Amino acid sequence: MQKELLANPVFAMAAEQFDLVADFLQLPDDLRERCKWPKRLISVAVPIKLDNGVTQVFYGHRVQHHLTRGPVKGGLRFHPSVDLGEVAALAMWMNWKCALMDLPYGGGKGGIACDPRQMSRGELERLTRRFTMEMLPFISPEIDVMAPDMGTNEQTMAWMTDTYSARTGYLVPSIVTGKPIGMQGSAGRTLATGHGVAFLSTNALYKLGISIGSATAIVQGFGNVGSHTAKTLAAYGVKVTGISDASGALWNSCGIDVDALRVYVAEHGVVSGFPGADVIDPQEMLCQPCDVLAPAAMERAITKDIAALLQCRILAEGANGPTTPEADRIIDERGDIFVIPDILCNAGGVTVSYFEWVQNFQRFQWSENEVISKLETMLQKAFEKVTSFADRHKVSQRMAAQSIAVKTVADAKSLRGLFP
Ligand code: NAD
Does the domain spanning 192-340 belong to CATH 3.30.420.10? Predict the structure, then answer.
């Protein structure tokens, strides 16, 4: 493989984390190579006609990290910064997440470099359908199952399902997950990631002996993950004192009314201007005393400078890769913060995506209660696996989670052996 194709700071971060884990596990060189580098890198030109009649060629990528334990699973994002290296890093993290949760999947990620906010609905539909067509030789419910990510949504998944099904001649809902409920999506999928972040946070509070009724939380990001994290924490009785999004940060030491904020954001699109809280500097908000800090916005939000100033007891990583490796080292040295690492903390989304895929094969819809109760059982099991590994081996929660995951993949590769 031409490894220079993957040159990107996010891939460098994922690779550095992998190397630390492989050293800890003392993975033999051959298995290390097979686990670290992606199986398939697919890049395609996606030409479409814009509304003004001009033909524009977009570039799309899909990385299938490995297919050792089943089809690859992971999102499709539409964003200007998408490149092969970023997508490969996200595919690698998906790998570890699926393995940690014991889902029968490898990791994948895809994206198209574009700015969906500047495109009409018609242009987005043509882009999605043409990309799906270009992917036809590489996807199926048994090979690669995509889902929404940044800049894509359940409508995107409905168009992908329709394009794929037009080729087969019958409806194949299991080709993607994160579909609308009316197109065999799963109950509970929208709230799953945030619900999981909140649920695992309460597990951590319990482990640290902090009562939920007296706990406080700060949430960065108020999109899908952040808003459901805040809503569920508040429903459990946790006081949410700080919430931010790209527009600014809010603070109320008596607790922000999360339901009222959700109504406000549905109307205004952003948290700024919400009357039920004071304004605070977004970076300062992250460093206020609290029991749970949930970064649920974007990658690399907790830098080394912020890590030194954190005053939380639990860092619940709702976003993917929110803590830089330098920050991670500081948090490790401090030893006073219980980290719920991203591949565990935000695994609720992919777990309910897996449930959706299973329901599609079964041609049977589960109720939201059934979905959430199965989700909590699986998250609790993974949480216990990670904390007991960390305690047993005296390593960080992140090292524990990634070690379990990498070892699961390495063991599967060893069992399958090499062919021919
Ligand atoms: P989203 O687009 O719905 O929301 C992102 C939120 O982050 C928005 O409120 C945005 O305003 C906010 N934000 C952006 N820049 C910010 C900044 N500088 N400071 C504070 N807030 C900022 O995205 P999402 O689906 O909620 O995903 C959030 C993170 O969680 C991403 O890292 C994503 O990869 C990860 N994740 C999402 C899911 C899922 O099911 N949606 C699953 C696993 C992981």
Answer: no
